[in-house]
Task: inverse folding
């Protein structure tokens, strides 16, 4: 889900961009969809992520729950794409994944981190980058590039609040994902929830028992608030 500081500085702040949109602009931006091509982790990671999510919700009940509309995932590529080209995006991403065998990869989760948005933070479990992950991301970037749009508005995201829950910094993050969150800046992780910085600082100070897991699936999602994978648009087939 959200990897860098830019994405969440607007947590808890007014969402003037969303409120300022005219109905015509909102309709126009339905021509663009904010997507996340993601690997879905196996039960080992899901169990860890959901346990941590429950812990954070105890500390900060106004956060979000990992559930059927907030899927635990590893974001490989976030982009604005032309809605009319979604089927081409699915085909391009599927062709890339057909050449890989992610279910055979052994990935290591080794620490917590969070993106500060004082006084809050969005936390995640960090995964060691591997040659396989970098290669897959690079291939996905190239495959999807012909269908990308330069930017979008809150209407490009999944929202049950008319786009008012879509952070302005999230829009900027998706716009700049390839330059700011891919390649050498890629920080693979599974987002686990929201809490105060004070609570998260204490959590990060605790020993982290590292563990290994594997990808179990892959999908293209429509992004929602905080960069969550809110709506599955297409499940992608992985080679066994």
Result:
């Amino acid at each position: 889900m959200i990897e860098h500081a830019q994405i969440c500085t607007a947590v808890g702040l007014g969402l003037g961009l969303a409120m300022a949109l005219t109905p015509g602009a909102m309709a126009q931006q339905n021509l663009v969809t904010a997507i996340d091509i993601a690997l879905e982790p196996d039960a080992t990671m899901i169990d860890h992520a959901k346990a941590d999510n429950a812990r954070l919700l105890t500390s900060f009940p106004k956060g979000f729950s990992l559930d059927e509309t907030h899927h635990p995932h590893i974001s490989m590529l976030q982009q604005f794409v032309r809605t009319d080209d979604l089927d081409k995006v699915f085909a391009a991403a599927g062709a890339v994944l057909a050449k890989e065998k992610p279910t055979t990869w052994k990935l290591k989760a080794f620490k917590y981190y969070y993106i500060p948005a004082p006084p809050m933070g969005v936390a995640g479990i960090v995964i060691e980058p591997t040659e396989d992950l970098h290669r897959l991301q690079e291939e996905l970037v190239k495959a999807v590039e012909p269908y990308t749009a330069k930017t979008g508005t809150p209407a490009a995201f999944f929202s049950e609040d008319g786009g008012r829950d879509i952070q302005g910094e999230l829009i900027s993050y998706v716009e700049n994902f390839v330059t700011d969150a891919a390649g050498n800046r890629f920080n693979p992780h599974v987002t686990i929830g929201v809490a105060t910085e004070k609570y998260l600082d204490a959590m990060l100070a605790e020993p982290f028992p590292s563990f290994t897991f594997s990808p179990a699936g892959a999908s293209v999602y429509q992004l929602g608030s905080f960069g969550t994978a809110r709506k599955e648009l297409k499940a992608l087939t992985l080679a066994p």
